[in-house]
Amino acid sequence: MRLTVSEDRFPLAEVFTISRGSKTEAAVLTVVAERDGVTGRGECVPYARYGESLESVRAEIEALPAFFSRDALQGLLPAGAARNAVDCALWDLAAKAAGKRVWEIAGLPAPGPEITAYTLSLGTPEAMREKAAANAHRPLLKIKLGTPDDMPRLEAVRAGAPKSRIIVDANEGWSAEIYADLAPHLVRLGVELVEQPLPAGEDDALLGLERPVPVCADESCHDRASLPGLAGKYDVINIKLDKTGGLTEALALREAARAAGFGVMVGCMVGSSLAMAPAVFVAQGAMVTDLDGPLLLAKDRPHPLVYDEAGVHPPEAALWG
Question: What burial letters (b/e) apply to 284-306, b meaning 16+ CB within 10 Å?
Answer without folding.
Answer: bebbbbbbbbbbbbeebbeebbe
